[in-house]
Design goal:
Distance between the termini of chain A: 65 Å
Radius of gyration of chain B: 17 Å
Number of strands of chain B: 8
Structural class of chain A: alpha/beta
Helix content of chain A: 40-55%
Largest interface: A-B, 71 and 65 residues
Helix content of chain B: 40-55%
Number of helices of chain B: 12
Largest sheet of chain A: 6 strands, parallel
Distance between the termini of chain B: 23 Å
Shape of chain B: globular
Order of helices and strands of chain B: EHHEHHEHEHEHHEHHEHEH
Oligomer: heterodimer
Strand content of chain B: 5-15%
Chain lengths: 464, 236
């Protein structure tokens, strides 16, 4: 991805709140709708058992990842799929070079794929002279706008209906008061021609079944089905953590992922890619490539705490439940994956220094833990990164010194009491704005008033 | 007679002294012999949540020493109680004699589950209240119905609040590291607040965040610690 900049999180978030307050409205209302749908979808099932199952399957797979990947590759190749290993983003992108040249690709239709965003597939295709066409409605919208996705599942979540109306009016000639159905129909019509004319289809992969070599894709619009079956060549970029042992496991994950993401019992379309078109088949590509991408995932796997984040199925439930994410949407995070999952994956995949301060973009409220379908202990991993950051000297010196001084004071009750007395007897409510920590507090809130007497004092005087 | 030690907490001692005194009054009212170990300071949560594990460990060790003899430790704070119950065992796992985290209770939880209090009195008749669920009380200690039940038992109408279980944006140092987002989170709480006589919570940090933001925005109902409201409810 070309614009990785988590370091500017605080400024970007503040700018979003100040300059585009409508983003908070759109993101807030959409995430609350997603969350309510998820809650309804979990009501009739034994959610705890499902989540335990999903956690255990993913954990087992990650602990035996080499074995399942080897099995998956063997089956993929037996199915006639070309398999590529990509250690870095550039290795993954290079796979496209040869395909584009051999097949004279001029247009590529793209199914929604966060991994392709992570890798910067669109930018690379443009460099190769290929026009990438996003075919998911949300991705189509943000491609027209030239923006990255703001949410894992709903990439245009930060846009209001009115903004989409204006955009479609300009690009597709729909009326300014068009209904959502009218806008979708116009996009569908425009995209249909692109599907028929594209030489290459590009997708991600929600799951990869090791026992059958099947790439599974979930969607609601039918665009993934078309992207992966109409063009003559299909390339699927699949993260190495997407493998699960069996196709039967995939059947379970399709359900818990859909329930967690959008509150559906299952996506409206499920595509199971089983290799290129066979001699007796009429549909499907003649050539299928699966690119197995690492790009920092083995770094995450090697980390004592963050490896659990690789269980993620990219449902977006943690974003939907996160009160921090809800204020700004995903752009402020400066990376493909935003919200709680982005904040714990970024240090593992980009390196801690580059990912700072994302581990601090959380109040540790724990709402994400309640909804994660694979039970990733997100607050624990956030704390883990915060501790690593302190050890690595990546937290401000003033904060480290202040914390140490406070801890020393706290070990000496008399001194601690004295510091409390200073709260009452110095005019810090007025001067606090100039101090570290307190100054940031005072920027947005009125200063708290200390009690007239400390409780310690009240206790000494006797409590009636 | 049940004996319990009050852990006022650093915020309670300095910003909610009356609420701590009301905690003592409530506990005595229900027959508890309360003591106040004077060596107590801070549980270490701010350092722990910001990643300063070594500092947090020092404070945890100090706190465990101070309360070593206590049968029960009762706190007018969900998040500090949660720090001791949920995180001390991991933080002090190397210690020879780690404290028993099961003896640590948040006030409302202690009243309901240890003392078996079902009804407080009638001192809150006619009062409308909004209750903010602190995240750690709610999710780490599982405190959901206790404070609301106690408030209602004293006659208060606890009104529905769409965002009552959403984080207020305090989060310790988070509120100073990311003040803009933190304040926006408080705004969401305040924007959805029903028309009530008083807003309350078991957590002082949340109350400082919400009241500080409300004052900045101008005009809001008073914010009071739940210990003080409950004592008002129990008062004849």
């Amino acid at each position: 991805m070309s614009h990785v900049n988590p370091g500017a999180y605080r400024e970007a978030a503040a700018r979003s709140l100040r300059d585009t307050p409508e983003v908070r409205g759109s993101v807030g209302s959409a995430t609350r709708t997603f969350e309510a749908s998820r809650t309804r979808a979990f009501a009739p099932i034994d959610g705890d058992r499902w989540r335990d199952w999903a956690r255990d399957v993913k954990t087992h797979t990650l602990l035996n990842l080499d074995q399942y990947l080897e099995q998956a590759v063997e089956r993929l190749e037996a199915n006639g799929v070309h398999v590529h290993w990509a250690e870095k983003d550039v290795d993954a992108l290079r796979v496209l070079d040869d395909i584009v040249e051999r097949h004279g690709v001029r247009t590529a239709v793209k199914a929604k794929s966060m991994l392709s965003e992570e890798l910067g597939v669109n930018e690379h295709l443009e460099r190769l002279g290929v026009e990438p066409v996003e075919t998911d409605l949300g991705e189509y919208i943000i491609q027209l706008l030239g923006e990255p996705p703001s949410h894992i599942v709903g990439p245009a979540i930060h846009k209001s209906l009115d903004e989409c109306r204006a955009l479609f009016h300009d690009h597709l000639g729909t009326p300014l008061d068009g209904t959502p159905e009218r806008l979708a129909a116009a996009a569908r019509e425009a995209l249909r021609a692109r599907f028929l004319g594209a030489e290459l289809g590009i997708s991600g992969g929600n799951f990869l079944a090791a026992d059958t070599g099947t790439v599974a894709l979930i969607e609601n619009e039918g665009n993934i089905r078309l992207s992966t079956s109409i063009p003559n060549v299909h390339v699927a970029f699949v993260g190495i953590e997407k493998v699960v042992p069996t196709l039967e496991d995939v059947a379970g994950f399709l359900q818990i992922t859909a329930r967690s993401a959008t509150g559906q019992p299952i996506g409206l379309f499920v595509s199971l890619i089983q290799g290129p078109r066979k001699a007796d088949e009429v549909d499907g590509p003649e050539e299928v490539h699966v690119v197995l991408v690492d790009n920092g995932r083995t770094n995450a796997l090697a980390d004592e705490a963050a490896w659990e984040a690789l269980r993620c199925v990219r449902c977006g439930a943690c974003l939907n439940s996160c009160p921090v994410y809800r204020q700004t949407g995903g752009h402020a995070y400066g990376w493909t994956y935003s919200g709680p999952i982005g904040a714990i994956l970024a240090p593992a995949m980009l390196g801690l220094e580059r990912a700072m301060p994302l581990p601090h973009a959380s109040s540790l409220c724990g709402a994400c833990v309640d909804v994660c379908p694979v039970r990733i202990p997100i607050p624990d991993i956030l704390l883990h990164w915060r501790e690593r950051a302190v050890e690595a000297g990546l937290t401000p010196l003033g904060e480290r010194a202040g914390s140490g001084m406070y801890a020393s004071l706290a070990a000496r009750p008399r001194a601690f009491e004295g510091a409390g007395a200073m709260l009452r007897h110095t005019p810090w409510r007025q001067t606090g704005r100039t101090l570290p920590v307190l100054g940031s507090w005072a920027q947005e809130r009125d200063m708290p008033r200390p009690s007239a007497k400390s409780f310690r004092q009240l206790w000494k005087e006797g409590i009636e | 007679m049940i004996k319990a030690s009050l852990f006022a907490t650093c915020l309670g001692d300095n910003f909610f002294a009356e609420a701590c005194a009301d905690t003592v009054r409530l506990l005595r009212h229900f027959g508890v012999e309360v003591d106040f170990p004077e060596g107590q300071t801070c549980c270490g949560q701010p350092a722990f949540n910001a990643g300063h594990r070594g500092d947090a460990e020092r404070m945890a060790r100090h706190t465990e020493t101070v309360f070593a003899e206590s049968e029960y430790v009762v706190l007018p704070s969900g998040s500090c109680a949660s720090m001791m119950r949920a995180h001390y065992p991991g933080l002090l796992s190397g210690e020879e004699t780690p404290g028993d985290s099961a003896r640590v209770w948040e006030l409302c939880q202690f009243l309901v589950h240890v003392l078996g209090v079902e009804s407080i009195g009638s001192g809150l008749e006619g009062r409308t209240v909004a209750y903010h669920h602190g995240c750690h009380a709610l999710r780490e200690l599982g405190i959901e119905h206790e404070p609301v039940t106690l408030l209602r038992s004293a006659g208060a109408s606890v009104l529905d609040w769409e965002a009552d279980r959403e984080c207020c944006g305090f989060g310790g140092l988070f509120s100073a590291k990311m003040p803009e987002v933190s304040a926006s989170m408080a705004d969401r709480k305040l924007e959805t607040l029903p028309d009530v006589d008083v807003v309350t919570s078991s957590d002082g940090g949340c109350l400082l965040q919400l009241s500080g933001r409300a004052e900045r925005r101008g005009g809001s109902p008073p914010f009071r610690h739940v210990a003080s409201l409950l004592w008002q409810g129990a008062s004849p």
